[in-house]
Amino acid sequence: MDIRRVTEPELLAASRLTFAGLPASQRAARRFIAAAPANLGIDFSRQIVALQNDLVCGACLYVLTPGRGATVLSPALAGGLDDQSTRAARRLMIAQAAADCREAGALLIQTLLEESPDKPDARDFLESRFEFLALLEYLELPIAAASSAAASDPSGPRPGPRRGPVPGWPHETWRPELDAQFAALLEQTYRQSRDCPALDGLRQAADVLAGHRATGTFTPQGWTIAYCQGVAAGLVLVNRMLGRQACELVYMGVAAEYRRRGLGDWLLERAIETTRRLGLPVLSLAVDANNEPAKALYLKAGFKKTAERYAYHLPPARR
């Protein structure tokens, strides 16, 4: 079995394995593939293929993202291979895709699966040097529900700032000259954080911020930095989601010395109000299942769990 980067003659066959939504017509499918980098942020030429007798029998798509990140999708195999050949092909394609990502400069190489580490598809990534990172829980808040929750529970944190600006937390929204300050504060919020701590220090803060900016559609009015006595203390990053009438809370964090002062509640209120002002009905987010303080904050505000995924990443090569 031959494992290598896809070539132009194999591109359509490989893409039909990795992307079920391709049009049936070959001409329409090729147009879709050509337009995918601009429309979906996916370059179908970034696929590793498995070939048997010069025919594509498997494909593994990977996506490079701003901020030196990459995602390797779970390989797709055609029928006809026995279990042993299927597992071998999957592991070889995963390893080659990860190597291509590393060669392209990616520092964060990850995958998101529905399967826990003890399941076969997840084991293929683990056998290819990936490590379990976190169980991510996906939560959503209907914005109308946020309004009704605040009205029915005036004693709890109000998921939408109807009480006016919170005293003591002056703030600014993103503008280009604040970019370095956002990056510096982002790094401070990682200290003693329970949000995927294994990733701490993997990339520079500027790279992480670039990745956050590329999540969905960058929405400057959704990026807020809050101050305590003139010092940057916390930030929240909200972007519009692609292909859906919703916002995503991409990241929220508070510097360690300013925690337990109510700033997290205020930042969450800010995210909800941003979503409301944009006229969108849902605010979505993902949280590390082990991050109990963040989960408690979100659930108290009315968020409900909608899905979960297991995140795995390829750690840097050990020296």
The coarse overall form would be elongated
CATH homologous superfamily designation of the largest domain: Gcn5-related N-acetyltransferase (GNAT)
Taking the alpha carbons of the first and last residues, their distance comes to: 31 Å
- CATH architecture of the largest domain, by name, is 3-Layer(aba) Sandwich
Class based on secondary structure composition and strand pairing: alpha+beta
- Describe the sheet with the most strands: 13 strands, mixed
Keywords:
about 325 residues, alpha+beta, Aminopeptidase, 13-stranded mixed sheet, 9 helices, about 35% helix
Structure characterization notes:
With 319 residues, this protein is α+β, with helices and mostly antiparallel strands. It folds into two domains: 2-129, Aminopeptidase (3-Layer(aba) Sandwich); 136-312, 3-Layer(aba) Sandwich (Aminopeptidase), CATH 3.40.630. It is built from nine helices and 13 strands. Strands 1, 2, 3, 4, 5, 6, 7, 8, 9, 10, 11, 12 and 13 form a 13-stranded mixed beta sheet that branches. Strand 9 (223-228) and strand 10 form a beta hairpin. Helix 6 packs across helix 7. The longest helix is centred in the N-terminal third of the chain and has 21 residues, at 83-103. The radius of gyration is 22 Å and the shape is elongated. The two termini are 31 Å apart.
